[in-house]
Specification:
Blueprint lengths: L1 E8 L9 H15 L2 E9 L4 E2 L5 E2 L3 H9 L7 E5 L9 H13 L3 E4 L6 H15 L2 H13 L11 E3 L5 E3 L1 H15 L5 H10 L12 H9 L7 E3 L2 E3 L9 H16 L15 E3 L6 E11 L5 E11 H6 L6 E3 H13 L13 H34 L5 H31 L3 H17 L6 H11 E7 L2 E6 L2
Helix pairs in contact: 3-13, 4-12, 12-13, 14-15
Length: 476
């Protein structure tokens, strides 16, 4: 197995933690365990890094390591770091990076322990849980839950009444009963239920359209049995029920049967994800993959795969019409329109520099907020494992998914920060766009999807799709 060294050094590093010392220990570690040394990546205080050949780069060592792990020819690799704490500037970043590397298919180990990082993380979190003041707060909230008192926002169909118990909201209760009846007794699917509610003028509590997700959440919520559940406490008969136990059980059986009839799907990324909008209703269009099989007269089987973009209003809310565009055709049309651009079209309009900068800064702030939320999710999932609510296998799966999402957002944030630096003046912005356009068109057939998407976002604000044509709207 190939071993990759990942070292970090700050200006305050002790002698034993110097880059030279870490590299020496890494080579001995590989020799003792029979690993083949593949490459090393270094991160220092200012974020610059170098690869095994000593070349300086503006990208940090961890980002270079991520790029290396995404290569298709890397084979099976083991990432070796000095210690768990040495993975980041603080424990939070170390946890995040550990699971990000695992999500990229690498095994991570440490020269200075722990031998089982996941067990050490859960054990450490267990100790924290026992010491936190929040335990007393949760205990108090648990006592309230035992009494059936509402904690948090009441579910659709109910409001908080006297003695902080749930009581019915008549208009909403009618809709809940209607949803269960359509699903169980009229044999309607979730998408058709959402469509009927929207067509008949029913709205969610916030005044929005019903979607498949909101319908499914109602069908699975045990609160409609008259049972209040919170903090592991279940209080039957705490409030008026909206569905009978037999009907609720039948609904769950049907939901489970429908879910088990489908093989798990691997998500297939789409080049224009997040950029395509329906020109009829203004909602975004999402990528959809479908497979179709048939039997020929000769008895042989045929199969074909279809990829297309479809209006999300139609997909999740059964609103709008069946507006679709085949993925290959739409992506080819976008490429053709970009190829026909006049250079003047890439020049920013006079006086809009401040607006572009403000837009980028606002987007960066939103991404930073989302990253903080995902950090809290990592911590919450560790807390759930510490309390025995989820297994270590479930913890690993959840944290890998969360950290992988974080990695994508971090890279998007880096792109935005790079753009902020590039947007110093109109001429620089124009040069940046010209470079992006040239790189995109020259490498359209050879660049990976992950390489093409940032270039597209440099140029395109959105793609408006109507039945009679496609319009590429450039960024301001």
């Amino acid at each position: 197995m190939k071993a990759i060294g990942y070292f970090r050094e700050t200006k305050s590093s002790a002698k034993g933690d110097s880059l030279a010392a870490q590299n020496k220990d890494f080579l001995k570690f590989c020799e003792d365990h029979g690993y083949e040394v593949a490459v090393t990546f270094v991160e220092i205080a200012d974020g610059n890094g170098s690869n095994g050949g000593g070349n300086e780069s503006s990208r940090g060592g961890f980002r270079q390591l991520v790029d290396y792990l995404r290569r298709t020819d890397r084979g099976f690799v083991l990432v070796v770091a000095r210690s768990f704490e040495g993975m980041g500037v603080d424990r939070q970043q170390a946890v995040r990076r550990y699971f990000q590397l695992e999500g990229l298919g690498a095994q991570v180990t440490f020269m200075a322990g722990p031998s089982d990082p996941l067990a050490e993380l859960v054990e450490s979190r267990t100790e924290q849980e026992g010491e936190r003041l929040g335990d007393r707060v949760r205990a108090a909230m648990r006592r309230k839950a035992v009494r059936g008192e509402v904690l948090g926002r009441p579910p659709y169909g109910y409001r908080v009444g006297s003695r902080r118990r749930l009581e019915l909201v008549p208009d909403e209760a009618v809709v809940v009963r209607y949803i269960f009846r359509m699903y169980l007794h009229e044999d309607m699917g979730i998408r058709l239920i959402a469509r009927r509610l929207n067509e008949e003028g029913f709205h969610t509590r916030r005044g929005g359209n019903w979607s498949m997700v909101s319908i499914r959440d109602i069908l699975r919520n045990r609160v409609y049995l008259g049972t209040y559940s919170r903090f592991g406490v279940r209080v039957p008969g705490s409030h008026p029920a909206l569905v009978s136990p037999d009907d609720f059980r039948a609904v769950q059986d049907r939901l489970s049967a429908r879910r088990n009839n489908y093989a798990p799907r691997k998500p297939s990324p789409f080049l224009l994800a997040g950029l395509v909008r329906c020109g009829h209703c203004g909602n975004k269009m999402i990528g959809v993959s479908r497979k179709q099989s048939w039997r020929r007269r000769s008895g042989t089987k045929g199969q074909a795969s279809y990829r297309y973009y479809q209006c999300e209003s139609r997909t999740n809310q059964s609103m709008c019409d069946y507006h679709t565009q085949r993925a290959g055709e739409l992506e080819g049309e976008v490429r053709d329109q970009l190829a026909e651009l006049d250079e003047d079209a890439l020049l920013p309009r006079a006086g809009d520099g401040a607006a572009v900068k403000a837009e980028l800064e606002a987007k960066a702030e939103r991404l930073e907020t989302r990253l903080h939320q995902l950090d809290r999710r990592l911590d919450d999932q560790l807390g759930s494992a510490a309390k025995g609510r989820i297994t270590r296998e479930q913890l690993h799966k959840l944290n890998v998914a969360t950290a992988t999402n974080q990695l994508r957002l971090e890279e998007e944030l880096e792109e935005i920060q790079r753009h902020l630096q590039d947007q110093q003046n109109a001429s620089e912005r124009a040069r940046t766009r010209k470079r992006s356009l040239a790189s995109l068109l020259d490498g359209w057939e050879t660049l990976s999807l992950a390489e093409k998407q940032p270039l597209l976002r440099d140029l395109v604000d959105h793609v408006a799709v109507r039945d009679d044509g496609v319009q590429v709207i450039l960024r301001p």
